[in-house]
Amino acid sequence: MTPTEILVLVLAAGGVFFSLVAAVGLVRMPDLYTRAHSSSKSETLGAVLALAAVAIAFGTQLSTIKAVLLLVFMFLTNPTAAHAITRASAEQGIEPWTTEDDDP
After folding, report:
1. Is residue 99 part of a domain?
2. In 3D, which of 48, 43, 51, 46 has the Cα closest to residue 15?
3. pLDDT interval class at 103 (50, 70, 90)
4. Residue 96 clears pLDDT 80, i.e. is over it
5. How many whole angstroms separate alpha carbon 52 and alpha carbon 42?
6. Domain hosting residue 31, numbered range
7. Mean pLDDT of the chain, nearest integer
8. 86 closest CA partner among 75, 77, 95, 73
9. Are 51 and 71 in contact, with CB atoms under 8 Å apart?
10. pLDDT grade, residue 91 (50/70/90)?
11. Residue 86 lies in a domain
């Protein structure tokens, strides 16, 4: 394997790992705020790593430019959308989960 292939493999594996972490966080976290945090941070990193692997795998082609532009778009919009969703829920009066919520 060439060093480029190894780099693509490592980046793709990192993208899959962080996307899996985001999915697990979405299922396991107790409320909207922690779910938004875990999914936005991890999913953004996973998507960025996966798109970086795609850009490196394509080399010097038009597809590389498209992948890089998509990478920048995802890097800017994912955290912004998560922030907008959590801010809207806070304005609607949705309370965050606390440890007192678990007491019987």
Report:
1. no
2. 46
3. low
4. yes
5. 15
6. 3-93
7. 89
8. 95
9. yes
10. very high
11. yes
